[in-house]
Structure formats: structure tokens, C-alpha cells
Specification:
The structure holds 2 protein chains of 2 kinds. Chain A is mainly alpha-helical. Helix content of chain A is 84%, strand content 0%. In chain A, helix 2 crosses helix 3. Helix content of chain B is 70%, strand content 0%. Classes of the chains: A mainly alpha, B mainly alpha.
Chain lengths: 70, 155
């Protein structure tokens, strides 16, 4: 009986291999954290840049009009 | 014996992944929990006093990490019966039916006892339950399995 249970578990789990990248993820978890940080920082930078641009456009409009008028 | 983290990972990550997979039955969840487990191992290994084996200690962390985790849907594939084993398809399915309907803790006990060859005291340490509970649950589960296997043979 016990041999059969052992064999069952060997069949179910014995040949299962974890994903190849798992070991690297365990050894270098900071890579993932760095990617998250880089993505967040870039998104924040773009958002701030856009909001400044939107704020500045109405101020620049008369200047641009003045320059472009003959 | 001196352990460094890389050697611990190298030696045990496959066993930990399989153990976690046996509990959550979802490969992505098993990966996440295995990662979290080894983050804790890295953090607390200096506190490991060697009262148990390294694997037993890591398994206990894995059990705690699994309890914290809300498991998503199961994607664990059913195994195709390979020809190298002596178990017949019928025996395999009988065992599968009984084991799948055991409650989670009983399944973990059976897994640890028969797949990882853990002793009853090691299982008690990993699951944080009394050794007597492990013995009685193991006894009941084995009896249930035996009954099903024998009734299967008669039919």
C-alpha cells in the first residue's frame, strides 16, 4: 500500500520541473524590484511633464501668436 | 557544514516548488510563494539554529507563506500515466480520487510522509501541529486509501 502511494506521488510530482527563470528570480529578486521602480519613475516623469506642458500652453499662446503675426 | 544562500537555493528550490504546488495546485502561485519563501530564508537564515534539517525549516516557512496567500484557480495538469511505473491506470485513478478528496492538511501529511520521506516529528514541526495528530491523521488516511484500493480490486 505504502509503495503504491509513494509511486503515485512520484508520478504526480516527481517529474515536475519548476520554470527555468524561478531560480534566477529567487537569487536576484532585486531585478524585479528595480524594473518596478524604473517603470514607476518613468510614468511619474511623463505625467509631470505632461501636466507642465498643459499648464504652459495657454501662457505661450499669445506669445506664439505675436511672433507668428507679420 | 557551511551554507550560503546560493547553495541553499540550488539544493532545495525544486523540492520547495513541488511542495508548494502540491498545496496550491497553481503553477504561478507556486512560483510566487516559492520566491517569497526564499526571501524569508535569506532574511532569517542567520537565526536558524539547526534544531531541524534545513529542508524541514524551509518547508515550515513555505507552509506559513501559503497560508497567507489567497490561491487562485487551479491549473495543475492531470498526469498522463507513464509506462515506467508499475501502478495500473485503475490503481492510479483510485488513489487520485481518494487523495484529491482528503482535506488539505491530510494531503500535506501524506505528501510529506510518502514523497519526501519525512518522519512524523518532522511533519509535526512543518505543519505546527502535535505529533499525535500527525499519527492519527496518517493512520486514518492510509485506512481510507486501503479500503478504496481493496474495494476497487474486488469490483
Amino acid at each position: 500500500m505504502e509503495e503504491k502511494i509513494k509511486e503515485y506521488f512520484n508520478m504526480v510530482y516527481g517529474e515536475i520541473e519548476p520554470p527555468k527563470e524561478l531560480k534566477e528570480k529567487i537569487l536576484h529578486p532585486e531585478d524585479k524590484k528595480f524594473l518596478i521602480f524604473a517603470f514607476t519613475a518613468t510614468a511619474l516623469f511623463i505625467a509631470i511633464g505632461l501636466s507642465i506642458f498643459i499648464e504652459i500652453v495657454p501662457i505661450l499662446e499669445p506669445i506664439i501668436l505675436e511672433i507668428s503675426l507679420p | 557544514m557551511k551554507w550560503d544562500f546560493e547553495r541553499i537555493v540550488d539544493t532545495y528550490y525544486k523540492a520547495v516548488y513541488r511542495f508548494v504546488l502540491s498545496m496550491v495546485r497553481n503553477s504561478n502561485d507556486a512560483c510566487d510563494i516559492t520566491q517569497e519563501t526564499f526571501l524569508k530564508v535569506r532574511k532569517y537564515f542567520k537565526n536558524f539554529r539547526g534544531d531541524s534539517s534545513v529542508l524541514t525549516w524551509i518547508y515550515r516557512i513555505a507552509v506559513n507563506e501559503t497560508k497567507k496567500f489567497n490561491s487562485k484557480k487551479r491549473d495543475f495538469p492531470e498526469r498522463v500515466l507513464p509506462s515506467v511505473y508499475s501502478l495500473t491506470t485503475e490503481e492510479y485513478l483510485d488513489l487520485h480520487d481518494v487523495l484529491e478528496f482528503l482535506d488539505r492538511e491530510d494531503y500535506e501529511i501524506i505528501y510529506l510522509r510518502f514523497f519526501d520521506n519525512m518522519s512524523e516529528s518532522e511533519i509535526a514541526f512543518i505543519l505546527d501541529i502535535p505529533e499525535g495528530t500527525v499519527k492519527s491523521r496518517l493512520f486514518n488516511a492510509k485506512r481510507k486509501l486501503k479500503e478504496v484500493m481493496e474495494s476497487g480490486r474486488k469490483n
